Description:
The structure holds 2 protein chains of 2 kinds.
Chain A: H1 11-34, H2 45-48, E1 49-51, E2 58-60, H3 62-92, H4 97-111, H5 115-134, H6 136-141, H7 145-154, H8 158-188, H9 192-200, H10 205-235, H11 247-258, H12 261-292
Antiparallel strand pairs in A: 1-2
Chain B: H1 3-9, H2 18-42, H3 53-56, E1 57-60, E2 63-66, H4 68-99, H5 103-117, H6 121-136, H7 140-165, H8 169-177, H9 182-212, H10 224-235, H11 238-270
Antiparallel strand pairs in B: 1-2
Helix pairs in contact in B: 4-5, 4-7, 4-10, 5-7, 6-7, 7-9, 8-9, 9-11, 10-11
Amino acid sequence: xxxxxxxxxxxxxxxxxxxxxxxxxxxxxxxxxxxxxxxxxxxxxxxxxxxxxxxxxxxxxxxxxxxxxxxxxxxxxxxxxxxxxxxxxxxxxxxxxxxxxxxxxxxxxxxxxxxxxxxxxxxxxxxxxxxxxxxxxxxxxxxxxxxxxxxxxxxxxxxxxxxxxxxxxxxxxxxxxxxxxxxxxxxxxxxxxxxxxxxxxxxxxxxxxxxxxxxxxxxxxxxxxxxxxxxxxxxxxxxxxxxxxxxxxxxxxxxxxxxxxxxxxxxxxxxxxxxxxxxxxxxxxxxxxxxxx
Amino acid sequence: xxxxxxxxxxxxxxxxxxxxxxxxxxxxxxxxxxxxxxxxxxxxxxxxxxxxxxxxxxxxxxxxxxxxxxxxxxxxxxxxxxxxxxxxxxxxxxxxxxxxxxxxxxxxxxxxxxxxxxxxxxxxxxxxxxxxxxxxxxxxxxxxxxxxxxxxxxxxxxxxxxxxxxxxxxxxxxxxxxxxxxxxxxxxxxxxxxxxxxxxxxxxxxxxxxxxxxxxxxxxxxxxxxxxxxxxxxxxxxxxxxxxxxxxxxxxxxxxxxxxxxxxxxxxxxxxxx
Lengths: 293, 274
């Protein structure tokens, strides 16, 4: 099935290329004549980056800020997702039936409900409940300027913090179910003999996991876990529906205010693609390196 | 590598315990309801479950009238079913393109799959609706179905490709030595066998499709999620409506998941060669 050396252009190749070209020409024709769209690409760069008039320095504007918020959101969401996922994954491989049941129920429940519905439920619940309980906003507001700035840099500015944290927790709860499955598969992938041998050596269940099973499972878990991080980035677009100012939300806002519909959505799609593609290249490298070891 | 492939590669068997799974689900539902009810109790949330049924359906004077939620279910199912058929077509063509010797076909399929897999579905829906929609002159619902099927098609193509690749080389060689053309090799020998293996993971992809179809509510298609949003905005029955909506989705995806597991077991048990 492999191609030989050199590229041979066959009739099929020519046909496909022609079809693609034809489709491209058709699209261009429709844009120019059918929609008579007035392109204004020159307006886009100023939404990516702007010059601060007071200091004369370049600052990221709406779209780049949105991208940074997306990245921040994904990285922070990976933390609760990892904790919940590891716990649920361990539960699912536990010997006790209720623990297995709990882990299984969590995973099945999350995986069978649309993320959008989960976001609505969790977000209303979390932002009302947990934020009130933690009293976080008040604490940040009364803290020093340095703390405020650190929070703004690492998470979100104080006035947006409660929304941001609810979004992070929501995303973490959702992705945790997928990580649980990865962890479970990793633990199950360790040979049965390892369990038996470590038991024969007198390890407790905890010791078995800690010293024998998990270190071996880790190399199996890492590549799919890295892949799951890409999913977190992609799924973070969903929390835009609860007004967290990440890339998708900024796109909606900008479209409503500028009507540069085509330019904005093309730009945002390209931005997401570059982010996702860079991450998946990194994951591929990680995978091949793990395989070599 | 998808999770399913990962599981298969590492020979992980998922044991299926019907009552255990049902019990698990039921207990957690109870636990979650209790947890939320407790939290909501602290919020002084006023539960008004009795107002919910009429949004599902009403039955008066022997006249059955579907409520907005049930109408939403129909839209969800319609969009999912149409997308499933289209996604299968996209997936199968992309898989065949990817496996063909043609350079342009391989590249097209690769670009398609990579572009879809590395961008969020929500962005694809917006892109299709806001950019492709006006350009191609297609409406809201068509854009949504197109976006969904392109998205699921990319994942289906990987599944189908894995299925075709799993057919032993002997089958190809035997077909060749019988003098079958490559078209007939595919349609008579390879695809029928591959489809059998591909069916269970494709059914699970159908579950994802139903779930993902909730995102089309963002372009104001009145599917189940959108109807839920409208009712919540009107009545402030936030938790009642969202729990109901989640429950209805759970019923749809749950029954399809059961079907996938059943098919998987059937194919594994029934055909030793698989």
